[in-house]
Amino acid sequence: MSAPPSMYQGNLNRREEIAVSGAALSEAPWKLAGATGVVVAGADLLMHLALHLFGFRLEWATALSMGVVAFWAVAGAGALVRSRHSRALRYARSRPWRFAVLPGAAAAIIVFVLTVLDGSGVLGSAFTAIWHGAIAFALTGLVGSVVRPRRQSRS
Length: 155
Description:
Structural class: mainly alpha
Number of domains: 1
Largest sheet: none
Distance between the termini: 36 Å
Strand content: under 5%
Order of helices and strands: HHHHHHH
Mean pLDDT: 83
Helix content: over 70%
Radius of gyration: 17 Å
């Protein structure tokens, strides 16, 4: 596998952009993203359990879907704001909205599978997956556009 291109190479095709985004995403704070996903999914499940007591249907897939969105949004945004430096991260930081496609697509794919397993139809699952992926995409791109990476402390 070749090294990711430098940030000065602007004419990457979609496959190369996804490869560079994947390399940048490998620098994500996975423990923090996992903890955030668990907390969000747990809070959403508790809310649904409380509503279930009042006669509403328990929706486990909804809680997991929101946890997946939180997981990928924190993973993508966390990779962009970490103080680590690599060519892939420099490329992703210079093009945060292109980088955000990967966490958004990953969230959409996982949410699609979850909602199909929950018993929704393919069309309803596709719609749900698109808007969950759009939320992860928007959060990652927004954080990448607004927040600059932290400086490494030199001791």
